[in-house]
Amino acid sequence: MNQHNESNIVNKTACFPNLCRSFTGTGHFSCRKALYKFCTLPVLAFFVLSCSSAPKRPSQISTTYNLAVNQLDMGNVESERGNYKHAENLLDEAWRLAVSVDSVELRILTQLSFGNLAFYQNNQAEAEKMWQRALDEANAEQNQELIALSKIYQSRGTLSWGSHADVQESVHSSTQNAKVGAQDTAQSNAQENARRVIQTVTEQMGYLKKSNQLYTAYAWLLLGFAKKQLGQWQQAEEHFKTAEKIHEDMLYLELAAYDWYAISSVRSVAGQYEQAVKAMQNAISFDRRAENTYGLGNDYLALSEIYKKAGKPEQSQEARNRSKEIFASSSLLNTPD
Predict the structure, then answer these.
(1) Helices marked H in 206-312
(2) Is the N end or the C end of the chain the one with fewer CB atoms within 10 Å?
(3) What is this structure's pTM?
(4) What's residue 49's pLDDT?
(5) CA distances to 121, 271, 303 from 275, in Å
(6) Cα end-to-end distance, the chain, whole Å
(7) What's the pLDDT at 314?
(8) Is the CB of residue 220 less than 8 Å from the CB of residue 243?
(9) Spatial CA neighbour of 157 closest among 119, 189, 211, 203
(10) Is 24 exposed, middle or buried (0-12, 13-18, 19+ CB in 10 A)?
(11) pLDDT for 210
């Protein structure tokens, strides 16, 4: 991942296309010409002074800001879809634009998204660095909402990497008893991390503005995973459903699909295989509507595992074959083993 310092911000000139399913070609944003380049001052004065209905100049120009928001949103979408190189390019451009207009809010949000991108690629050091940089900048601005959001994003790492930190010790254990002990310790640590995440996210959610419902949904999703880690299946599903309603109401179809994917995982772990299949079918339905190839491939792969656990080998193999076909259909994605 690129380091986002002032030197490479100046040199970065790449522009990226609007989001579409094919995502082919490269669009360019041309520099805006001065609106009055071909007007003389007397002519300008004439229109301003003689026409009472002349349009007023805006009190604030937000063209570049809006472009940055657009790039950030598209980068987040591509990151969720597993198109990591495209996501990095889009986030690079969002960062360049945010820096160019000195938008503290967009700088922080973009750094949080870079952290998520690193998280998806299992790059713990980079993810933690970007989330911490966002938190540091939010603290410097004394922006309580962005401070809260940064802490919520950091909780994602606490829940995920904290759950696996002590498991690595078991690899070096020389006896079976030592391995079992290490695994028990890891499980205990994972549950403690889950409780920490629940406390942090619950405390910080109150600072999120109601206008930023996507971030509220993100918090509910984390709470759901934390409850799942603690084996509290019903509460976990309720939190996932709360996130799903927000995403569906806002027409973020692939995020709604992921919520149903999470609900299916809870039901599967709880041994409710029939209900898990129904939830995964909902995930597939939303990913179809979103034309989300990456999501569909993973949906069918998970469906295969559910059927396998339910003792239905034929359905399991059929779902796995469907997953392979979907992944193989796209040159942007690799077929999982």
Answers:
(1) 213-229, 233-249, 253-269, 273-289, 293-309
(2) C
(3) 0.74
(4) 38
(5) 30, 9, 12
(6) 26
(7) 98
(8) yes
(9) 119
(10) exposed
(11) 82
